[in-house]
Amino acid sequence: MERETNGTEDEEGRQKIREEKDKSKELHAIKERYLGGVKKRRRTRHLNDRKFVFEWDASEDTSIDYNPLYKERHQVQLLGRGFIAGIDLKQQKREQSRFYGDLMEKRRTLEEKEQEEARLRKLRKKEAKQRWDDRHWSQKKLDEMTDRDWRIFREDYSITTKGGKIPNPIRSWKDSSLPPHILEVIDKCGYKEPTPIQRQAIPIGLQNRDIIGVAETGSGKTAAFLIPLLVWITTLPKIDR
To answer: Where is the composition biased (Basic and acidic residues) (predicted)?
Structure first.
């Protein structure tokens, strides 16, 4: 109890010291303003002087005021939550939201506060889920891909398809359903990543469906045709002679 009393007295003492300092500074500023005083002569700038003068008169600084009447300004709350012209709109919105938030916090009961906390937790959980769902397709597993992810994937690789029930393209060789021995041969041939025509044509070819693929020269159309063909050949029974 004595410590709390001593702490309160120390705080009151420091507050009085600050008030006395502010009063003395304010009195000194008033004397300089109306009675005059020794002023530092400002450097005169000549017309042919291109250097910028960074000095200014201390009396011109209006950012700090020692009078509590001007230091603690009252924020006007307009009817209908309007705004004051000539002042930053975002700053006014922040101050108004802080004012109404503090006002509602004082009026809320314990039950309302618990409901608000539950609502905020639910909102944060929803936002976290949204951020998790909005990850780039390269950061997702194959079973986590959505229709939106596949659409973005096709746009990234300039894949355009026409037809019905078209399978999804392959993202990488390891995500494809190719047999291991075929993947080993592909790796030995130096195909590290499939080309756009291979990404879409191989899944369609593995379904034994007809396809017409249009791509520029050197884009891997031959491999896109041969890989499904080799997979089909390996499924045929061996011929013993």
So the answer is: 13-24
